[in-house]
Amino acid sequence: MANLERIYTIPLGDAYLRVRTKRAKRAVAFVRAFALRHMKATDVKISEGTNMLVFRDGMQKPPRRLKVRIVKGEEGIAKVWLIGEEEKIKAIADKKKAAEETKKKEEEKKASDKKKEDDKKAEEKKADSAKAAASTAKPAQAPAQPQAAKQQAAPTAVKPAQPAAAPSAAKPASSQQAPQAKK
Fold first, then answer.
1. Rounded to whole angstroms, how far apart are CA atoms 70 and 159?
2. What residues make up the domain containing 108?
């Protein structure tokens, strides 16, 4: 059994013959009975938009007529839609789906960026740990180098003492020359 689709204008004027506080409920019952009778369906589902239109002005003032599209599915269930309502719902669903996809892409980008940052941080930590390992190895070698430097520095310290002694010997010679000048 294929999908059967028809457009109807349902008269709801008889709902005004009921008690004022029950008119909208009675109008929904008329819509349901109309769909069952004309589509020969086993069950009727009324869309949210149709229901909202019936109750739009309150329970006491339902619309006098309602233009709807009724679709009978393979299971024998008739669905009552307002004209253009299903397309609006599809458009809203498509927008929502597109928004979710863009949000998902943004989250994936953020995740990949975060992963890259984590990789960089891990590399930096490895480099820091390598530097730390190298710096811990250098202090073990560092004391050996200063001792060698001290050993080399000790002979150089002796050498400046010798030239200092030479000028002191030169002073008496100059003092000897000065008296000769007096003669």
1. 116
2. 85-138
Show which of 138, 153, 172 is a domain's final residue: 138
Phi-psi region of 58 (alpha: psi -120 to 50; beta: other; left: phi over 0): left
Of 43, 62, 83, the last residue of a domain is 83
C-beta of residue 35 within 8 angstroms of C-beta of residue 80: yes
Task: Give the C-alpha distances (Å, rounded to integers) separating 21 from 12, 26, 33, 39, 46.
Answer: 15, 10, 20, 30, 21
Between CA 6 and CA 72 the distance in angstroms is: 9
What are the residues whose beta carbons fall under 8 Å from the beta carbon of 55, sequence distance 6 or more?
Answer: 24, 62
pTM of the complete model: 0.51
**Does any domain span residue 173?**
no
pLDDT digits (tens, 9 = 90+) for 120-178: 888 888 888 887 777 776 554 555 555 555 555 555 555 555 555 555 544 555 555 55
Rounded distance between C-alpha atoms, residue 65 and residue 82, angstroms? 12
